[in-house]
Amino acid sequence: MSGLIFNGLVNGIIVGGLYALLGLSLSLLYGVLRVVNFAHGELVIGGSFVAYLLFNALGLPPLLALPVAAVGFFVVGWGAYYLLIPRLSRSDDPESMSFLLMYGFSIALAAAMLLLFGADSRSIDYSFSPISVPIGPVNVSTARLVALGVTVLVTLAMGWFLFRTLPGKALRAAAMNREAIQIVGVNIVRLSALAFALAFGLAGVTGVLIALVFPAFSPFSGGEYSIIGFIVIVLGGLGNPIGALIAGVFFGIAEQMATVFLPQALAQIVGFALLVATVLVRPTGLFGFRTLR
Q1: Residue range 166-182: average pLDDT?
Q2: Which fold has domain 2-281?
Q3: pLDDT for position 289
């Protein structure tokens, strides 16, 4: 039993790291723009398909697909902001309209991936050497450990950006009070475009890592990751990127440990139970703050 618990804990940390990246990118987008990105899961799966294409067409290993996905999705996100978001600002209810817009965007992305790749699940037939590494009483897949290492590096890089650079500090300030930072001369349009592009870039990176950690993905997998992302940002506090990171790891561990002690069917409701409990007990999230409006 101790081996199962240890295995659940290790896998929970690995999966939780990916959930943390999901929550971080969603939290940036919601915190700065108040955009409910229902297409986030489809963007993540798009990153997985980018890694799949690069590996099968060019023989490019998944790790080398990371910068391609990050830069490509960043550029797409920058352009998508100017194409989609300015129209939302002229709406009477931008948050509700953003939900409808991004929901339609998610359907369009899923349909495009279905057209290009078909409905069958795909996987990247790539393995590291050695295939697994012994950690305590269990053997852990090397691919999962590599994904965890990349996740830690990306998280540290984002932490440095958010806390040590002027644009990062501006993003955090915009999440707390969007109107106040405009008074001191911050270009809110350019800052919002940066947040949008960063969210897209992080989604692409997360998709590549998901292709390493999970055995298969398909055009229909996006909805699941969107739901997980929303659970994470509600747990961590809407618009709080650091809270999203902590909540992602917490949720990953809780989910994996639930599979050890509960039947599979019951283990799947743990995330929703945590979500409902958080909303009832602490509506601002475990690490949330009340934004000034």
Answers
A1: 83
A2: ABC transporter involved in vitamin B12 uptake, BtuC (1.10.3470)
A3: 54
CA 5 from centre of chain? 26
Question: What is the number of H-type helices and E-type strands within the chain?
Answer: 12, 2
Give dist(CA 256, CA 267) in Å, integer: 8
Contact 208, 50 (CB under 8 A): yes
- Exposed / middle / buried, residue 173 (Cβ in 10 Å: 0-12, 13-18, 19+): middle
Sign of CA pseudo-dihedral 56, 58, 60, 65? negative
pLDDT at 290: 52
The SS3 call for residue 263 is: coil
- The span from the CA of 267 to the CA of 190, in Å, is 43
Using CA atoms, how far apart are residues 251 and 241, in angstroms rounded to an integer? 15
Domain ranges of the chain: 2-281
Residue 27: closest CA among 278, 247, 283: 247
The 10s digit of each residue's pLDDT in 109-125 is: 999 999 999 888 998 88
Give the pLDDT confidence of 249-265 residue by residue, as tens digits.
888 888 888 888 877 77
